[in-house]
Amino acid sequence: MKEENLCHTAHCRLQVANSTGGDYAFAVDRNGFHWKCVNRLQIQGDPGHHENWACIPLACYNEEGNLASGFKFEEDCKRPWVVGNDDGAVVADA
């Protein structure tokens, strides 16, 4: 993931996590990490360049809120586990 595509504030990361409409996508990078990306035009109050994406890394958490293993490449985050961001927010539509 390119540096200019990363969300650097909790405000940006939360908006990407909660985004359910508009221009967004999920991706897996060459290292197998999962990402959710939203068009920066949809991020309110974001001072970044609006011609690119705002992206957050995704992680899988178990029922106790602990990081679960095995969420790389094509592997899924199995229910009842949830997909969240680095700040612990549940990611919509993931």
Tell me the layout of helices and strands.
Elements: H1 10-18, E1 24-28, E2 34-39, E3 53-57, E4 59-61, E5 82-84
Antiparallel strand pairs: 1-2, 2-3, 4-5
Keywords:
23% strand, mainly beta, two-stranded antiparallel ribbon, 1 helix, 94 residues, 10% helix, three-stranded antiparallel beta sheet
Entry summary:
This protein is mainly β and 94 residues long. The chain contains one helix and five strands; from the N terminus they run αβββββ.
How would you sum up this structure, described in words?
- By secondary structure, the chain is mainly beta.
- The strands form two sheets. Strands 1-2-3 form a three-stranded antiparallel β-sheet, with helices on one face.
- It has one helix spanning 10-18, and strands at residues 24-28, 34-39, 53-57, 59-61, 82-84.
- The model has no long low-confidence stretch (mean pLDDT 88).
- The two termini are 18 Å apart.
Q: Return Rg in Å.
A: 13 Å
Give the DSSP E fraction (strand runs of 2 or more residues): 15-25%
| Integer average pLDDT | 88
Strand order of the largest sheet: 1-2-3
